[in-house]
Amino acid sequence: MKPFFILFFFILQVPFAFATTQESNDLFEQLFEEHALVMLLLDPDTGEIKAANPAASDFYGYSRQTLTQMNIASINALPPDAVAEERKLAALEDRNYFVFSHILSDGTTKTVRVSSIPIIYRDEPTLFSIITDISDYRATQASLWHYQNRLEQMVAQQTEQIATQKNHQLIITSLIIIVLGAGLATMWFVLTKSRRTEYELQLERKRLDEIIRGTHVGTWEWHIPSGELVINERWAEILGYQKHELIPASFETWKKLCHSEDFAHASKEIDAAFNDSNPFYECEFRMLHKDGFWVWILAKGKIMEWDRDQNPIRMAGTHQDINETKRLYLQFEHMAHTDTLTGALNRVSFNQRADIVLAQARQQGAHFALLFIDLDGFKKINDTYGHDAGDSVLVETTKRMGQSIRNSDTLARLGGDEFAVILEYTSHSEDAARVAEKIISSLNQPFAIDDQQHAHLSASIGIACYPDHGESVEQLLNCSDAAMYYAKKSLKGGTYAVCDPDNHATTSNNRGKQSL
Q: Residue 151: CB partners within 8 Å, gap ≥ 6?
């Protein structure tokens, strides 16, 4: 199901981001209607439900007509202030999803994960939301912590009982010296009770071990001064090993298997637990599987014992395999920031990157250039050879432009046949012009459609430089867009134009410079 969901989401991006044809809308609507995932289309301003698929009707218990007459706020069980707090928390944790409580028609409440992206559907801004029921996952997570806390409480109680038993034994020994006969009988009674207590403790530990095995998590206990690490079978199984292959285990065993970049972060979290008044530890990191790939692990733990100087002696916790969840998260994050056809950054990511470059330039007093690129002749390729050929040309175009710029520069597809490039630390328009000439030259080479046919296109490029042509990203985009339009219309394309604050432009191509 998960791989199919990934494929569906991948296909779904194209109609929403770039499709302008009725066929694309029909394809989306077919997928929307037939897919088993709960999907809603919302008005981004009011929260009104514009459309719901059959899976949403089945999940919420309302008819689809009833759902389209409702507001998402009437389904959300959280009050507005709690919803706002969850949105702030998602932004703080850099999550692209929210966790809410949704009320079904029968009054029951489900914990759901809501993944939403803004789209243009039927020429209107729309919020496309996928709702996933995670009630069972949250219940399992809560149960795990319940059993862990129960284990800690019971171990503490049993430890206290053993200490009490030892005190009783000292008292009884003293009584034996005074009254030998009565003391012998009393000693026999205490020893018998002690054995019974120890036996019951062993049974209790066995029961708790079975509970932990039922939660399917790895457990570990770390003796900090010696570095000795005690693990269970599941801890090893997560990494493809049998337990005996990793015994004797130590802190160095974990360090060796942990990804070097993640180990530095995990070490900081451990140090924080050592030094903080709250001795709990939680961290995500990658560990090397026996077969050579990385497995994402969620580690949780607590310091169980301190010495007289408040130095940690013993720490215990769990390992949980979150590889699939992490893989989906990283893939969704990548898809949200890249153009699914060409692999270049999409418009949203370009704007984010441009804001970062602008902030750095302001702080450092640096310069950069922005190139607005529109392909000449791309529509003719689509009309002549078909959209598949056009997509192939777009992919090759992106590859050639990427080879024409530095690794530190930014290439993005803004939509259709429009691209943009950010040239960092570029002080003069002449330097940007040389890059523009290199891009135009690379695109002038024929594009192979098949073994016998070749297509030709070029590009019109507008150049704007910070801070000469604008103090904001919007000003630079408008300026470069105007220069590109001048290069396409007035100069018949295949060249570039540099804008200036007086709405004039100077142009250049391989035949030399011209001016208005």
A: 208, 212
The whole-angstrom separation of Cα 361 and Cα 55 is: 49
Q: Give every CB contact of residue 231 below 8 A, 6+ residues apart in sequence.
A: 218, 219, 220, 243, 246, 249
338: left (phi over 0), alpha (psi -120 to 50) or beta: beta
Instruction: Please give the single-letter amino acid code of residue 105.
Output: S
Give the CA distances from residue 336 to residues 113, 188, 339, in Å, rounded to whole numbers and listed in that order. 17, 73, 8
- Give residue 216's Cα distance to chain centre: 24
| CA–CA distances in Å: residue 296 to residues 5, 33, 327, 402, 482 | 21, 34, 8, 32, 48
Q: Across-strand partners of 464?
A: 370
For range 302-306, the mean pLDDT = 89
Evaluate if residue 288 carries a pLDDT over 90.
yes
Tell me the β-bridge partners of 313.
none
Q: Which amino acid is at 243?
A: K
H, E, C per residue of 401-439: HHHCCCCCCEEEEEECCEEEEEEECCCCHHHHHHHHHHH
- CA pair distance 236, 26, nearest whole angstrom: 49
Three-class secondary structure of residue 68 per DSSP: coil
Parallel, antiparallel or unpaired: strands 294-306 and 49-52: unpaired
Where does residue 271 rank: exposed (0-12), middle (13-18), buried (19+ CB within 10 A)?
A: exposed
Segment 416-430 shows an average pLDDT of 93
Closest CA to 393 of 461, 471, 445, 338: 445
**Lookup: tokens for 262:** 């993640």
What is the Cα–Cα distance from 282 to 287, expressed in whole angstroms? 15
Q: What is the rounded average pLDDT of the residues 240-269?
A: 91
How far is it, in rounded angstroms, from Cα 497 to Cα 486? 7
The tokens 């990658």 sit on which residue?
286
Mean pLDDT over each residue of the chain, to the nearest integer: 83
Spatial CA neighbour of 462 closest among 402, 411, 420 = 420
3-state secondary structure of 216: coil
CA proximity to 112, closest of 25, 184, 37: 37
Task: Using the structure block, give the residue that is written with the tokens 């009254």.
Answer: 179
Compute CA distances 434 → 184, 208, 237, 365, 445, whole Å. Answer: 102, 70, 57, 23, 18
Find out whether 55 and 35 touch, Cβ atoms under 8 Å. yes
Q: Evaluate whether 129 touches 44 at the Cβ level (below 8 Å).
A: no
What are residue 468's DSSP bridge partners? none
Q: 496 burial class (0-12, 13-18, 19+ CB within 10 angstroms)? A: buried
- Beta strands 458-466; 496-499: pairing state: parallel
3-state secondary structure (DSSP) of residue 380: helix
Q: The tokens 């929260």 sit on which residue?
A: 47
Read off the pLDDT of each residue in 81-100 and give the average, rounded to a whole number.
84
Three-state SS at 464: strand
| Buried residues in 436-447 as b, exposed as e (16+ CB within 10 A) | bbebbebbeeeb
* CA pair distance 481, 469, nearest whole angstrom: 12
